[in-house]
Amino acid sequence: MALLRRKFTPLMGLEVDGPAMDTPAMGTLVERIRTDLSAFSDPVTRTANQLRSLFRKRARKPLVLDLPGKTLVFSSPAEFEFGLASRIEFPVRKAARLVERDSEDLKGMAIKLRAVEKRFAAVFARCLEQPYRIGELLGGLESGLLSQDHDWRDIVQALCEHGPEYDDFKNIALVKYMQYLASRQAVLRSIYLEKVQGGLELQPQVAEEHPVEEPMLASVLPISYKETALFDLDQGGGGGGGAGGSDDEDEGTQTLQPVPRGEAICIRFTDGRELDIKLASHRYKLFPGKHFCLVDEASGVTHLLRSGRNVIGRHSGNEVVIDPAYLAISRKHVIIEPVSENAALLTDISSHGTFITPKHV
To answer: Beta 63-67 vs 275-279: how paired, if at all?
Structure first.
């Protein structure tokens, strides 16, 4: 065996003279080293990018909204959400004026308002699919669709002037405004029902004596827009999406309550028992387990839910497609996302509301 010759040089130190490595082997070694370095550096790079994004959000300047005559400043999304929480109720002074309107006027207002709700529900559904477009979609809505109550129109328009770094604020504003619309529809429904069922119909007033300060949100929309379940008068009530309850109580079960529009809530199943759920005026049962399923109480049709997010409604592109004849159910009505065998996230994105028993929340 030939002995390896060793030599020492001042620059290189101890060297070993031996058989030279062939070129293909050297290339394989270099490629392996490059792969190892890439496998190490990619997670580091992703983590660094995530940290930079988090730092930018934390370093973001407070949201400043310049409104006519005043300036609102919010240091965080949570503070902004808290500030909007008091703006979702329909003003009492306007509700008092509505009592003086006749039932036909109220019905016309409700038809237009329902159309507005549908517009915002469609925007919200699109934002769930493409969150980065919320600024574009919210800013593209006609100003006539935004009420002047509680400075809503000024707030949304000022918010849309801010860049994408404030998209989380825009999402909060969209959700809260949808809840305001639901509150307004609930007031209309309550007054209308009192008039037609309680005999409180008043003599029509002269229009000049009671001018309306603003159009009922959607003068840009035609009065010919029809809803088959307006006020849900013939459907057992509860379609307002914002009323205190569904006015629908079965023997041995609790009254169904509306789900807050646009907000994800966690529903829990006790001992694996099913949940009573109503989409607009149509009753279903939601069964938990390894594979969740939604059962139509009227027809017995069973819809199997997939793992992950399930958009439910009449649209043919949904994960769960409801009977198109159920016109009270929105094209994209509710999102159900199972998170375990006994829990799921539920988000109402409809215009007629989703109702469940409170004990499951």
So the answer is: unpaired
CA–CA distance, 236 with 230 (Å, rounded to integer): 12
Strand pairing category for 320-321 and 310-313? parallel
Closest CA to 64 of 164, 133, 161: 161
CA distances for 307 relative to 266, 274, 296, angstroms: 16, 18, 20
Asked if residues 72 and 64 have their Cβ atoms less than 8 Å apart, the reply is yes
Burial class (CB in 10 A: 0-12, 13-18, 19+), 283: middle
Q: How many CB atoms lie within 10 A of CB 16?
A: 8
pTM summary value = 0.64
Tokens found for residue 56: 């930018």
How much is the pLDDT for 250?
44
The CATH number for 257-360, chosen from 1.25.40, 2.60.200, 1.10.30, 2.40.10, is 2.60.200
Answer for the pair 350, 330: CB distance below 8 angstroms, yes or no: yes
Residues of the chain scoring pLDDT < 50: 1-4, 7-16, 202-229, 232-253
The secondary structure element, H or E, covering residue 85 is helix 77-85
**Cα 348 from Cα 355, distance rounded (Å):** 9
Q: Where are the domains of the chain?
A: 63-224, 257-360
